[in-house]
Specification:
39% of the residues lie in helices and 20% in strands. The protein is of the alpha+beta class.
């Protein structure tokens, strides 16, 4: 079996520190290591951020939700909207980026979000996230209006909007 057939080896965050000196880690891994050193995130959180949250994982907090979206949205130069589908038991079913926008705006299309949710018959709730490349984690007036609208649409469709998260570089 040649080495290209082997799955990439997952590296634990603390083992990355040893590899960092040799320059054998990616820019995103280097950035997450900086967060570990500053005490911003735990090793467990960083491991999930580096390697993703697996389908079936219980999503019980905003921190759990952020671990879904950080790998998808952090470091993007344009805003993007991502959605996670959650089961009635609170488990992650699926997540993906639905739309990309510009450096200052993402498209919140409630109909597209609901189509994605209804395509999975186990979905009972959604979590939405978008990034702010500027680094500002405060929701804009447009963000607030879009989330209010999405909440109304979700309630009318008997779908729960669990949370809305903003991912920004550095926090």
């Amino acid at each position: 079996m040649d080495t290209s057939d082997k799955p990439p080896r997952k590296r634990r965050p603390l083992s990355l520190i040893r590899l960092e000196a040799d320059g054998h880690i990616s820019a995103s891994e280097r950035k997450l290591l900086a967060y570990l050193r500053m005490g911003v995130f735990s090793e467990e959180f960083l491991e999930r951020a580096l390697y993703g949250v697996q389908r079936g994982t219980l999503i019980a907090s905003a921190r759990d939700a952020a671990a879904i979206f950080t790998p998808m949205l952090a470091g993007r130069s344009e805003e993007a909207l991502a959605v996670a589908l959650i089961s009635g038991r609170g488990e992650l079913l699926e997540s993906k980026i639905l739309t990309t926008g510009t450096t200052h705006a993402a498209v919140f299309d409630a109909a597209q979000i609901l189509r994605f949710a209804f395509a999975n018959e186990l979905c009972r709730a959604v979590i939405v996230a978008h990034n702010h490349p500027s680094g500002n984690t405060d929701p804009s007036t447009q963000d607030r209006a879009a989330i209010r609208n999405l909440k109304v649409v979700c309630e009318a469709a008997m779908m729960k909007l669990h949370d809305s998260i903003i991912i920004a570089p550095g926090g």
